User: Which sequence fits this backbone?
């Protein structure tokens, strides 16, 4: 009798795991901690990288002007297709110097091992005002809405595809932190068929086009101790996309808004995940 009960429970457990893998998203918790020395060393490593490989350019559309930096693939070959990665800065990087937007998620692509192993085009636009604005919706959830400049970026992408025909249109990726994480979600919601995947870190969610992004590759990353962009926002988005088996939600139980990016600065975890995704 006892043996039969154990067998029954094992079968039930396997069934639950199978159903979750087949129909649901992936939710994970990490207990990573970041001490002050790790924080300083990882930031120092990224800040020591030479950013001159990022070309300085400006996109103009009517009265909208967006400075941006462009990194081209190592050993760029015209007969070979390369992904396009678009990185978005947080609100502390707002300006028009075409320098300050090169925050850690832009600079990781300059690390020798990343530049060699994950060749791609990287675009880092800079906004001279907030690229996304926050408001409370009728459900009491803080949500993000894009600025006009964000919508204009869709035309910048088209221009880049014309200028660099070897951009792989099936592998256009979005990544951002804080305001930039929200901006990356905004773009995915505005034109989901353009993008293969999004990595959104410590963001305020965009809930405007849930039906169209329910089968997209989405990686939400948030610190449970975030007191700037509430963790509950990512929980809400995760719950509303419960049928999306391509969604990963990573919670760092010990991290906050200011140190959430640190675990990813000296690994290839984000580039590796992105490069596996296709539209």
Assistant:
């Amino acid at each position: 009798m006892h043996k039969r009960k154990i067998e029954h429970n094992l079968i039930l457990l396997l069934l639950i795991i199978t159903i979750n893998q087949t129909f649901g998203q992936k939710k994970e918790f990490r207990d990573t901690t970041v001490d002050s020395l790790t924080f300083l060393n990882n930031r120092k490593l990224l800040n020591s990288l030479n950013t001159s490989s990022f070309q300085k350019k400006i996109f103009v559309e009517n009265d909208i002007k967006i400075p941006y930096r462009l990194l081209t693939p190592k050993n760029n070959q015209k007969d070979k297709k390369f992904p396009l990665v678009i990185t978005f800065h947080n609100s502390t990087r707002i300006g028009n110097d075409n320098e300050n937007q090169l925050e850690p998620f832009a600079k990781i692509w300059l690390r020798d091992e990343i530049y060699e192993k994950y060749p791609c085009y990287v675009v880092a636009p800079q906004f001279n005002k907030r690229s996304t604005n926050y408001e409370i919706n009728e459900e009491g959830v803080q949500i993000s809405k894009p600025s006009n400049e964000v919508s204009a970026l869709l035309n910048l992408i088209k221009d880049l595809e014309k200028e660099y025909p070897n951009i792989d249109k099936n592998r256009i990726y979005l990544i951002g932190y804080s305001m930039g994480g929200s901006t990356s979600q905004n773009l995915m919601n505005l034109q989901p068929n353009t993008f293969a995947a999004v990595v959104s870190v410590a963001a305020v969610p965009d809930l405007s086009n849930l039906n169209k992004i329910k089968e997209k590759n989405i990686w939400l990353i948030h610190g449970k101790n975030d007191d700037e962009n509430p963790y509950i926002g990512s929980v809400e988005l995760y719950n509303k996309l419960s049928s999306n088996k391509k969604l990963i939600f990573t919670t760092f139980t010990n991290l906050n808004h200011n140190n959430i990016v640190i675990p990813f600065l000296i690994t290839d975890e984000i580039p590796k995940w992105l490069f596996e995704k296709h539209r």
Q: What stands out?
A: The longest strand covers residues 167-177. Residues 8-22 have pLDDT under 50 and may be disordered. DSSP finds nine helices and eleven strands in the chain. The radius of gyration is 20 Å.
